[in-house]
Amino acid sequence: MRILFTGGSGKAGRHAIPYLVEQGHRVTNVDKVKLDIPGVDWLNVELTDAGEVFNACSAYAGFDELEPGTGVPRYDAIVHFAAIPCILIRPDNTTFQINTMSTYNVLDAAVKLGIPKVIFASSETTYGVCFADGELKPDYVPVDEEHPTVPIDSYAMSKVVNEACARSFQARSGIDIYGLRINNVIEPHEYAQNFPEYMKNPDMRRRNFFAYIDARDLGHMVECCLQTDGLGYEVFNVSNDDMSVGLTSDEVIARYYEGVPVKSEMGPNETFYSNAKAKRMVGFQPKHSWRDVLES
């Protein structure tokens, strides 16, 4: 597939793009920073500028595409990961503006240009817990896609707005638009670097539902979505199967979720950020775990 990937030089994208290239896709990375990976095209685009986005989505990816003489090929899909990645980096109103307008522009261009699929990065923060003022417990555990999304911070608000826009663009056009409510992204080197401290102090993982997603498995999730057609608009939690702490699920419930309804029976190491829908609907099967590194 010919794929336009926004934000590919970021923490998640720089692992997802190599995975997609390994699957045989041609990827154009739209980012302010070039990703130095052989075979990956690059375009520097201001995503809050609708004209630049429309042009990027309808442009040649590389000089080789000039050779056939048949005009600009159409992108098969857009993967939109670019964003201000959390609060406290830019002013709140700027974070909201950039994240919402860039997503609107990408969706608008995709629909008007007839690009049949958009996969966009939503967030675990939509459930309101991650950047809450003080401690906020979920309505129930494990948290699935039916859980209310009523956040109070600018970043999570922007993601909820993006989901609403995506649903509306899908209803208008009939194309496939899938939102990924991505949990805390972990790069391979971070297991040895950060997880020993998480084992000592599990309080550090409360705001992430004690969950995580390996950056490589996130690439696999994107590929699952690229290969699954006809779902219309859907959102998916994206997480690994186990927790990011050394406690059992019963111990986490007793220490952190006392009085919180338990929606379904949980295994001893099962994630509190349910990925069951992604497994059921697109065939997601995460393969990596911190246990592979720390327990070896």
TrEMBL record:
Keyword Oxidoreductase in annotation: yes
List, for all copies, the residue spans of the domain called NAD-dependent epimerase/dehydratase.
Answer: 3-193
Q: What's the EC number here?
A: 1.1.1.281
The record, for Pfam families, names:
Epimerase (PF01370)
Which keywords does this chain's UniProt record carry? Oxidoreductase
What top-level class of enzyme does the UniProt entry assign?
oxidoreductase
InterPro entries per the UniProt record, alphabetical: Epimerase_deHydtase, NAD(P)-bd_dom_sf
UniProt GO MF annotations: GDP-4-dehydro-6-deoxy-D-mannose reductase activity
Q: Does the keyword Oxidoreductase apply?
A: yes
> PANTHER family, from UniProt?
NUCLEOSIDE-DIPHOSPHATE-SUGAR EPIMERASE (PTHR43103), PUTATIVE-RELATED (PTHR43103:SF6)
Recorded protein name is: GDP-6-deoxy-D-mannose reductase
Q: Which organism is it from?
A: Flavimaricola marinus
